[in-house]
Design brief:
Largest sheet of chain A: 3 strands, antiparallel
Number of domains of chain B: 3
Number of strands of chain A: 4
Oligomer: heterodimer
Radius of gyration of chain B: 30 Å
Structural class of chain A: alpha+beta
Strand order of the largest sheet of chain A: 1-3-2
Number of helices of chain B: 27
Strand order of the largest sheet of chain B: 1-2-3
Shape of chain B: flat
Number of helices of chain A: 4
Strand content of chain A: 5-15%
Shape of chain A: globular
């Protein structure tokens, strides 16, 4: 995995855990102020979840990530598409890992299976979700 | 030159005729053409001693050789022009035979179409067959079976006006009942033929069809009962003719809507078998169809019974509209009475909640929208139709949250409570996400390094950042509340409350739940407890409004649980 990808992924993980743009975040800082912070948080979260093997289930499509769900309105899908477009425009380094076309995100074709596996492992090893971002539901017993 | 050999099976038992027609007939198996002595076709004719036709069975089954000959070489002229005439001449003096030459010709042509379709053994053909039935129904059924305005509104002074002698009004209603029964019997007979079909030589049975056929049978019985009731109440009818026409028109729309749904259900099943589309939109449509159809089939006669009750309770002209005359108002009240029946409201809620389904059932939806457009009380009733009905219905069918699509979850959460609506909206806009998992995948997902399965055995749902994780086997009476609970956590997280403890406490102190202010509790709680308090309140509010069993009988009990567990 090249240094750019590594640094970019760490920045995204950090942003997801702290919701802060830090001075040293040379890549994601480029979108700071360009779109709503909440949308950056949500869309980067989707990208990170897609490449996190702990979020790979029997129904997960590992070939492509469709950015919308079927129950969404066309208006919502357009909004999400626009947010991803801006994300890829202002953070072109994302193209080192992904390609975004026709409402679908795929791995950059230059990455081979081993590269992708390396990305999965990197995320699994380095992305420790902030425990305060997690809540567990316990059903009361009567 | 030889000729086709045939046999006529003339019997009172329509079902056995249909079954014989559907099953492979060994008598026809050896037919090679006109030159041999083998049987080439069988005409199945229902015996009838009555003059009024009520959808009697007339089916013609031809051997493969005969079908092939007419389909590929000869064309279809001989069948209607020669054979229909010949058979008619032979049978016309039989007192239990009531069919015309044209009807025999039609049976030949229908059989040819059906048999060529079934011979080519493709699900697509079966779909086209259903599509043709559906189109015919949509085009003619509503028009033929309803009373047109010209027939009941004397102010139009139309030649079609039927009720110049009001005391004879009952006769027209009886005619309509008979006509509707006849049409339903005809449809039922066609559906019987489709109960099973072959794809690549393998036989498929459509279970849904058996239920639909039973449903049609029940409706036929209900119409007969309704007819009897009308005859008993004939003196009332002459005084309220437009009203009764309105009720009748509403019932016709209901039956038409039921049939549209039924055909759609069959089409979906066939499409499934043929490996058709299986995207989420399609799946949610299928889910909606199953749900709506299930609601009707639970008690197919209920609408007619409720309509009779509605008529009994009818008080003359409850609302006024200066743009309408008294006859239109009466008629509309009759139609509205049918739409207001609970089961129809249920079906409407389901259909209108799924865009693609509403589009597929456009004629039914058009009728609904017309009535809702003129009747604010019904609009209100529809708005108030609550999630508890949905939960009860689907739990009775053994469904858990894993069987409910996200589209339906979003629809059902909307408008229950303020927070449930916020969660619903956030899911729909893709701000938060919902992931439903089987037990094993769920536990694997939530287990932190170093934890054992025993440590997490009591956890049944989870929120991580903006994602809600839920177990597929969660029962519906619990699941919706848990989505609201975890959804509230996700929303608070997105709103930055997890990061800003001061704001978190301030906002929570303002909450008054079940007439109890949270101010004093917040001061005694840790940050995590305050976070949990907000979600428990959202869930409890939801449980109360949605008429589900509340986890806590009082606020004090809830607070005590939070102090103990978090």
């Amino acid at each position: 995995m090249n240094k750019v990808t590594e640094k970019l992924l760490l920045e995204i993980m950090n942003f997801r855990n702290n919701r802060e743009f830090k001075k040293e975040d040379i890549y994601i800082n480029k979108i700071n102020g360009k779109i709503d912070e909440l949308n950056i948080y949500t869309r980067l979260g989707e990208l990170l979840t897609w490449i996190d093997p702990r979020d790979h289930f029997s129904f997960t499509d590992l070939e492509k990530y469709v950015i919308y769900e079927d129950f969404m309105t066309e208006e919502t899908i357009k909004e999400i598409t626009e947010q991803f477009s801006l994300l890829f425009k202002y953070i072109p380094e994302l193209n080192e890992i992904f390609v975004f076309e026709d409402r679908v995100i795929k791995f950059n074709p230059s990455l081979n299976k081993a590269d992708i596996q390396e990305i999965y492992n990197f995320v699994k090893t380095n992305y420790v979700i902030n425990p305060s971002h997690i809540s567990r539901y316990i059903r009361p017993k009567h | 030159m030889g000729s086709w050999k045939y046999e006529i099976v003339h019997d009172y038992n329509a079902t056995s005729l249909i079954n014989e027609f559907r099953e492979e007939n060994l008598k026809l198996k050896n037919s090679k053409g006109t030159d041999d002595e083998e049987l080439d076709f069988i005409m199945y004719v229902e015996k009838d001693d009555h003059t009024i036709s009520l959808g009697r069975v007339l089916l013609i089954k031809m051997s493969d050789a005969m079908v092939k000959y007419h389909h590929e070489y000869k064309g279809t002229e001989d069948l209607p022009k020669y054979w229909a005439k010949y058979l008619y001449e032979q049978c016309k003096n039989n007192k239990t035979f009531w069919f015309t030459e044209d009807e025999i010709a039609e049976a030949f042509l229908d059989s040819l179409k059906l048999q060529t379709q079934l011979m080519s053994v493709s699900a697509l053909d079966a779909q086209n067959f259903i599509k043709k039935m559906t189109e015919n129904l949509s085009d003619s059924f509503r028009k033929d079976e309803r009373f047109s305005r010209e027939q009941w509104d004397p102010t139009l002074k139309s030649d079609e006006y039927l009720f110049a002698e009001p005391e004879k009004g009952i006769n027209y209603l009886i005619q309509k009942c008979d006509s509707l029964t006849k049409v339903l019997r005809g449809i039922k007979n066609q559906l019987e033929i489709l109960k099973s079909f072959k794809i690549f030589g393998k036989e498929f049975k459509i279970k849904t069809l058996e239920n639909i056929i039973k449903g049609i049978d029940e409706q036929i019985k209900s119409i007969e009962d309704f007819k009897k009731w009308l005859i008993e109440n004939r003196d009332d009818i002459k005084l309220k003719i437009p009203f009764y026409c309105g009720v009748w028109n509403g019932l016709v729309e209901f039956v038409a809507g039921f049939l549209d749904l039924a055909f759609l259900a069959v089409n979906i099943t066939v499409s499934d078998l043929a490996g058709g589309e299986t995207n989420l939109e399609f799946l949610s449509m299928r889910e909606g169809v199953e749900e709506a159809l299930g609601a009707i089939l639970k008690d197919p006669s209920k609408v007619f019974k409720d309509a009779i009750e509605g008529i009994k309770n009818y008080k003359y002209s409850r609302y006024d509209d200066p743009k309408l005359n008294q006859y239109q108002i009466q008629h509309n009240e009759g139609e509205d009475l049918v739409l207001a029946i609970d089961i129809i409201i249920t079906v409407i809620t389901i259909i209108k909640g799924i865009a693609k389904l509403a589009k597929q059932l456009s004629k039914f939806v058009e009728w609904i929208d017309e009535i809702l457009g003129r009747n604010p009380k019904l609009r209100e009733k529809l708005r108030n139709y609550k999630i508890d009905n949905f939960i009860e219905r689907n739990m009775a069918n053994g469904k858990t949250i894993g069987n409910i699509s996200k589209e339906i979850i979003i629809r059902e959460l909307h408008n229950v409570t303020e927070i449930a609506t916020e969660v619903s909206r956030a899911l729909k806009k893709g701000k938060i996400r919902l992931v439903k998992l089987d037990e094993e995948a769920f536990l694997k997902k939530i287990k932190a390094p170093g934890e054992t399965l025993d440590d997490i055995k009591d956890v049944v749902a989870c929120q991580i950042n903006d994602i809600i994780y839920l177990k597929n086997d969660t029962t519906l009476d619990k699941a919706f509340g848990e989505i609201v609970h975890e959804g509230k956590h996700a929303l608070d997280h997105l709103d930055g409350l997890f990061k800003n403890e001061k704001l978190l406490r301030e906002e929570t102190k303002l909450i008054v739940h079940d007439k109890v202010s949270m101010k004093s509790y917040v001061d005694k709680m840790t940050k995590d407890q305050v976070i949990e308090l907000r979600a428990r309140i959202a869930e409890r509010e939801f449980q109360i409004t949605a008429k589900q069993k509340s986890d806590f009988s009082s606020v004090a009990e809830m607070i005590s649980f939070i102090f103990k567990k978090y």
